[in-house]
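cron nightly-structures :: item 1 of 1
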Amino acid sequence: MSPVPTGGLFRTEAGVDLVLTRTFRAPVEDVWASVTEPERTARWFGTWEGRAAPGRSVKVQMAFEEGAPWMDVRVEACEPPRRLELSSVDESGTWRTELLLSEVDGVTALRFVHHLDSAEGVGEVGPGWEYYLDLLVAAREGTPRAEFGDYYPAQKPYYEGLTPA
């Protein structure tokens, strides 16, 4: 499998946004459930536990990473079924992400945004988000999961070549 990279970089006042999109022939509420309900996130990212609410943190298991580690994720904003903003901290730094959903005529667009301080490292994170979003697509469609090796390092040159718009 040779997935085609889809992400783009956009300059912001605080740095750059890495933006990837996927569309689903489904109501926005159903896609929202796929990105917020633990039993559904377990199918493509990992399960989570805790009491999720803006300003609170939950434990998320990255089920498709080596060792399936758990991490703390803070819910910065939750506006069902349209917007979810999250942050986490690991050895690579602070990860600030946002999921924005919109529906037109039964088709829901998911706009995934990773807020970055700079484009440094986008060659590593871009393929990772492509992989996870395609896992979401596969989980929703009941199709086989992709392999991370299909994304990285093959997509690294694409992401390293992006220039913020």
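cron nightly-structures :: done
The domain at 8-161 is CATH 3.30.530.20 (Alpha-D-Glucose-1,6-Bisphosphate; Chain A, domain 4).
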